[in-house]
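P.,

For your records, the input lines for the assembly:
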Amino acid sequence: MSQSGNQAIQMVPVANLHFDPENPRLPISLRAAPENEVFSFLLRECNLIELMLSIGAQGFFSGEPLLCAPRADGGYLVVEGNRRLAAVKLLGRDEPAPTHVKQVAAARQSAANKPEKVPIIVFESRDDIITYLGYRHITGVNQWGALEKARYLQQLAKRYGNGPDQFKILAREIGSRADYVAQTLTALSVIEKANDNGLFSRFSINAETIPFSVLTTALSYSSICEFIGLQSRADVDAEGLDSDRLEEFFKWAFVEEGGRTRLGESRNLRVLARVIGNERAIEKFRSGSVLDEADLFTEGPLILLQKTMLDIEHRLSVAQDALRSIDVLSEGERERARSIERAAKSLRASIDANMDS
Amino acid sequence: MILVQIDGKPRDEDVHTWSDYIELLALVNLDRVCGHEFVLDRLCDSPEDESLTEDDEDKSSEDQELDKTFSQKQSRMRERASIKLSDAFTLCQWRNAVYGEEYPYEVDLDSREIRLKVELSEAHYSYLFLLLCGNQPFVKKSNNLLTDGFEKFCTFVFSRVVPQGSEVHVFGKAAVTRYKGTKLEKLKALCSDLRGRLIADGQAFRKGDNGDGGIDIVAWHGLNDSAMNIPVSLAQCACSRGDWVKKQAEILPDFFANHLSTNPPWVPYMFIPICFRSTSGTWAYSSEVKNVVLMDRLRIIKNCFDFQAANDVCTAKKLVQEAVGSEEVV
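C-alpha cells returned:
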C-alpha cells in the first residue's frame, strides 16, 4: 500500500469525511444516496447501536484509524471504517435518527464521548486500501455477509485481471480457497444476469432481499448448476445461462406466493436439487405439485426407506442387548413390543403389495 | 413481574425456534424492531460455537469437503447462520399471512426486519403470551406465572374445541377443588366423571404419590344421562420446546391401559405454546407428532375466539406489557 505525503495519523473533523460509494456493504441503490438513507441502511443492517455505545463509552480507538482516500469534491472518502464513521456522525447530531429512534437517542444520552475529530490515514487512491479490506471483512473480526464478500471479490478480481490462476490469487489474498472464490463470483454473475434479464423488476425482488447464501449453496449442487446452464459452480462467466430456466429457478427459490416460496426453507435445496435432476419429478413440480410430492418421483424416498429400515434393524438389536440387563418388565413393554411387531408386519405387507403390483 | 433476557442463542436448530428468537428480540427491543444483521451479530459473537454448523446431512457433498479443508470455518458458520436466519424471517412472513390480524408483528422482507405493531390488540397479547410461554429459558423471573398461566389459557381454549356442553376441568397441579388427594384418589374421582373403568389399585402407585399422571385438563360430555360410553377428551400442556414430543405418550389411552380406561377411548390432546409449523403449513417435523390432537400456537390462537377472556384468566396482558421494550440499551 502506498501512502501519500507523511504516513502519520491525522486528526480530521468528522464533517470532512464521507461514505465510500463503492463500499461493498452498500446496496447499489444507495451509492449516491443522501446520508440519512445510508444511516437508515446501516442502522438496520450493520448493528450501529452497539458501535455507538462502544465509542460513546470509550471514545474512538486511536490505534485503528479510518483508512481514507482524497475525494474529488473535497474532504476524504472513508474506504475502511464506514460503520465507525456512521456511528460518530450519528453520535454528534441532535436530530432524531431516521430509524431506531429510541435506541439512537439512548446511545447519545449515555455517551461520555462524542468525537468531533477522528484519526485517519490517507492513501493515494481507493485501490491502495482495497486488499486490506479482505483481511478485515472476509477472514477478520468484522465479517461481511455473503453478498458483500462477493462484491468485494469482484472488485478485487477486476484489479487482478483474468489470468489462469485468478481464483488462486484471489483466494490467497483473502485467506480462502480457490473453489470458494469461484463459486461466490459465479453466484454474483448469476445475480447480475438475472437483473439484466429483468427478473428483479418482474418479480419485485433485488440483490439485497434475496438470501445470497441460498444461491451460493444452491450452486453446490451440480444438478442445479446444470439446470440453469452453468458448466459448473466455477463457471464465473456464466455465458451459457438458460434465461427461461434461470427464471424458473428464481421463481421457485425467491418469489413468494402466499407468504412462502415454492422452495420453502433452505434445507429443501437438497430436495429441489434431486427434483431438478429427475425428468418426471421436475415435470410434476412444474405442473404445480409441491416439492415433497414431486420428490416422490425421484430416488429420494427409496433412499429414505432403505436408510430408515437399516436404522430400525440396528435399534432393535440395541433394545435386545439392553434387555439382557433388565430383571423386571411391565405390561407396557410387552404392549410396545406387540405394537412394533404389528408395525413391522404392516410395512412388510405394504412392500409385498408394492412389489407384486 | 417477569424479566425477559435474551442472553444466548436460540435453544435448538429448528427454524421455528429461530423465528421465535427474532420475535422475542423485537418484543424486548426499545424500538420494537429486529433485523437480520442485528440477530446475526448477536449469534456470531461466539464464533467457536459449533451450534451454528448444520448437520452434514443438510450440506451437499461438495460443501462437506469444503468444510474439511477450508481454514475459515468461522466464515462458513456465519453464512450458514445467515441462511437459517433468512429461513426464519421467511417463516415470520408466513406467520404474518396465516395468523392475519392476530399476528402482532409487521414483517418487511425487503429490509429483512420485523417490527412489533404499535397498537397491540387482545389477540396480539395472547400471541405474545404464548411466545413467552414457549421460550421460558429466556424468562428469568417467576416462570410459574407462565407455566400455570399457560394451563389456564389452554383450559379456556379446550372448552371451545370439545363438544359444546362438555364439562371441562383442570386435573393437573393447578386443580384445587374437584380432584384432590393421592394420585389413586384423583383417578378414582376422574374415573367416576368419565364413567370409565379403574384398573389401578392400592399397589399401583408409591405411597405419597399425589401426581396427576400427566393429565392436565379433562373434558367430557354427559349426554344428559348417566350411562357409560360418552365422549371424553384428556389434555396435556407442555411448555418445553423438546419435552412435549416424549410427553405425548403419557396421555395416550394405551399408556393408561393398566390404570384407567374409557369406552370408547378418550381423545388425547397435547397443547404446546410453540408454533410447530414449516412454511408449507404442515408440522415442522411430522414424524414427531403421535396419535394426539396437537394444539400448537396457531391452533390455540385460531380456536380461542375470545382473547380478552382468555388473557384475563392468566394475566397475559400484564406479563406481556412487562416484556415490551424492556431490554436496556447498554
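Two observations worth noting. The CA atoms of residues 171 and 178 of chain A lie 5 Å apart. The first strand of chain A starts at residue 10 and ends at 13.

Regards
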